[in-house]
Amino acid sequence: MTAGKEPEGDAFSLAAAALTAVGSDDLCSPLRAAVAMAGAVISTLGSPMGSQTVCASTTLGARIDEIQIDLGEGPSWEALRTRRPVAAADLQVDGGALWPGAWAALRELDLGSLYAFPLFVGTVGIGSIALYSTAARELSVADITGLSKLAVIVSGTLLRRALGRLDVTDDETADEPYSRREVHQATGMVAARNGIDVDDALMLLRGHAYATGRPVRDVAAAVIARSLDLGP
Questions:
Q1: Contact (CB, 8 A) for 202 and 184
Q2: End-to-end alpha carbon distance in the chain
Q3: Burial of 90 (0-12, 13-18, 19+ CB in 10 A)
Q4: Sheet harboring 52-56: ordered strands across?
Q5: Which of 100-104, 125-129, 203-207 comes out lowest in average pLDDT?
Q6: 187-197 pLDDT, tens per residue?
Q7: What angle do CA 34, 40, 209 make, to 5 degrees?
Q8: Across 45-123, where does the E strand assignment appear?
Q9: What is the DSSP letter of 42?
């Protein structure tokens, strides 16, 4: 390795560390820094969390998000719908056929490129990350892969925050001993089904309950009865 040169992928490792740091509230800056983009914006879109901007690096980022939320279309919505990254490497020519209203409005801003990455946990759709530059720019495959991995971290963080705002979790209500056993059993099944640890499996279980407006123990019962599959 050449002296003084950072190892490939180190920027993404630093970003991941920043995103998972205890007490960290700034989710946008690590994403922007990972690929040296002009700015980043994170938003929740649609059900269950509502459509709103979570953070924006600049006022331009906030405006990008405002346009997409107001019009209900754009790369961020498309990324969430398809659960795949969406690229407009040259915004002057990319996107008109997919989201004409948003494209026309975004082209009026000082934007050269716009990328969107979906945020979701299991079956729960959360929102999107948008990264933008003032000049046309093509992100590499490695950049797309790295940002997609960072999006997984952001997804979990947003879902945990949403669940943390609930006053009482359903599995802590009446008939607690039975409810806990049922939830624990379902958590183990979801963990095995998805190849994840039990903490992430419980978050997935609670996230589905939150998204569908059902008690956690009802979702757990459905998983145990195999009438609900929370697999990939």
A1: no
A2: 38
A3: middle
A4: 52-56, 39-44, 124-133, 113-121, 86-88
A5: 203-207
A6: 888 888 888 88
A7: 100
A8: 52-56, 86-88, 113-121
A9: E
